[in-house]
């Protein structure tokens, strides 16, 4: 009953057959543990494989006592990474160090880039056809890192690589709901671009809701920098973990249902895209229709207000730099 209540969107009509193996890399961390809990409750998953450099067997043992029909295994250390990845249909990567007060996502780059590169190399070797969901920040750069690693192994498939930007949409719905005093579950905000600062562009003009100029400016800033609220509130102990876990579980659920043949599933995600290619941006987040192969259709941006066009102009150079940074990290001599 608990699983059906939490994952209620479309499960009854889904044609998905049991048997999915999902691997969580970084499963013992602040995002990884609640994410793994939510995935243990997902009836689409038969095998949940948890990997981290410490504590994973304990997390796995704890979760394995939950009475849902999936098997949980814990894998610890580099020597067990291959077993964690073998036969996985979906790999979720929340691994990495969290932000602290005063840090930007870009400040995390050197540490997290190395972690993601190592995990991507293992995935390319042990599960080259898996769908990769990147949560590790900075997503604008870590997604290109995974792509470049997979290219080097000749196994890159753009339809199977996703940057999880769902939290930006979740936050946008929440903040608009608070502003307009309405249920945020009934609000859908199209958020485009990337997953940090000015690259996060909420298209409030497309919601059908009227906002004042002051509301637009305040909401846009809060959506772009909402993560800073959590970092500051946690006072040096971490960044957004619980909300990110929920967003990651939502995207994983949507992808699993789409892989099983359910149609009409659209989620925002940062993928290799044509949308901003004319401006020299190879990866971009818009609404994406998911299908049996992963990415089925990348939706265009749609109409933007003059204010949103300025957001776009400000985001493009930042996205270019972020993407280049990730590509260069893998291809440097």
TrEMBL record:
Q: Provide the residue positions that the database annotates as binding NAD(+).
A: 26-32, 52, 112, 135-137, 244
Positions in coiled-coil regions: none
Q: Where is the Lactate/malate dehydrogenase C-terminal domain?
A: 165-330
Catalyzed reactions per annotation = (S)-malate + NAD(+) = oxaloacetate + NADH + H(+)
The Lactate/malate dehydrogenase N-terminal domain, residue ranges? 21-163
Question: EC number(s) per UniProt?
Answer: 1.1.1.37
CC terms in the record's Gene Ontology section: cytoplasm
What is the enzyme's main class?
oxidoreductase
Name the residues annotated as catalytic in the UniProt entry: 195 (proton acceptor)
User: Which residues of this UniProt protein bind substrate?
Assistant: 99, 105, 137, 171
Q: Which PROSITE patterns match?
A: MDH
UniProt cross-references to Pfam families, sorted A to Z? Ldh_1_C, Ldh_1_N
Q: Which InterPro entries match?
A: L-lactate/malate_DH, Lactate/malate_DH_C, Lactate/malate_DH_N, Lactate_DH/Glyco_Ohase_4_C, Malate_DH_AS, Malate_DH_type1, NAD(P)-bd_dom_sf
The UniProt keywords, alphabetically, are: NAD, Oxidoreductase, Tricarboxylic acid cycle
* Gene Ontology MF term list: L-malate dehydrogenase (NAD+) activity
The source's superkingdom equals Eukaryota
**Gene Ontology process terms (BP):** malate metabolic process; tricarboxylic acid cycle
- Is rRNA-binding a UniProt keyword of this protein? no
The family note in this entry says:
Belongs to the LDH/MDH superfamily. MDH type 1 family.
What is annotated about its quaternary structure and interactions?
A: Homodimer.
Name of the protein described by the UniProt record: Malate dehydrogenase
What's the source species for this entry? Geranomyces variabilis
Gene encoding this polypeptide?
Answer: MDH1_1
């Amino acid at each position: 009953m608990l699983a059906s209540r939490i994952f209620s969107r479309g499960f009854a009509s889904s044609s998905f057959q049991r048997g999915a193996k999902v691997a969580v890399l970084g499963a013992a961390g602040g995002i990884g543990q609640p994410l793994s809990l939510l995935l243990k409750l997902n009836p689409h998953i038969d095998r949940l494989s948890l990997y981290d450099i410490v504590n994973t067997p304990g997390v796995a043992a704890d979760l394995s006592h939950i009475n849902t029909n999936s098997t949980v295994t814990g894998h610890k250390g580099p020597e067990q990474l291959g077993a964690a990845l073998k036969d996985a249909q979906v790999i979720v990567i929340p691994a990495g160090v969290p932000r602290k007060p005063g840090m930007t996502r870009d400040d995390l780059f050197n540490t997290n880039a190395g972690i993601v590169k190592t995990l991507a190399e293992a995935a390319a070797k042990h599960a080259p056809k898996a769908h990769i969901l990147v949560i590790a920040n900075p997503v604008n750069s870590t997604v290109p890192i995974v792509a470049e690693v997979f290219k080097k192994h000749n196994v890159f498939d753009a339809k199977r690589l996703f940057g999880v930007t769902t939290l930006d949409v979740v936050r946008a719905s929440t903040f608009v709901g608070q502003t307009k005093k309405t249920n945020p579950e009934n609000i859908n905000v199209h958020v485009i671009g990337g997953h940090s600062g000015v690259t996060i562009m909420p298209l409030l003009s497309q919601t059908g809701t009227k906002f004042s100029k002051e509301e637009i400016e305040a909401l846009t800033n809060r959506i772009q920098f909402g993560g800073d609220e959590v970092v500051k509130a946690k006072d040096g102990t971490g960044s957004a973990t619980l909300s990110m876990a929920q967003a990651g579980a939502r995207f994983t659920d949507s992808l699993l249902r789409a892989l099983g043949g359910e149609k009409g599933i659209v989620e925002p995600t940062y993928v290799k895209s044509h949308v901003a290619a004319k401006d020299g941006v190879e990866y971009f987040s818009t609404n994406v229709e998911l299908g049996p192969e992963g990415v089925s259709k990348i939706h265009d941006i749609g109409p933007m207000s003059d204010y949103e066009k300025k957001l776009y102009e400000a985001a493009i150079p930042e996205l270019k730099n972020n993407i280049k940074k990730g590509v260069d990290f893998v291809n440097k001599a």
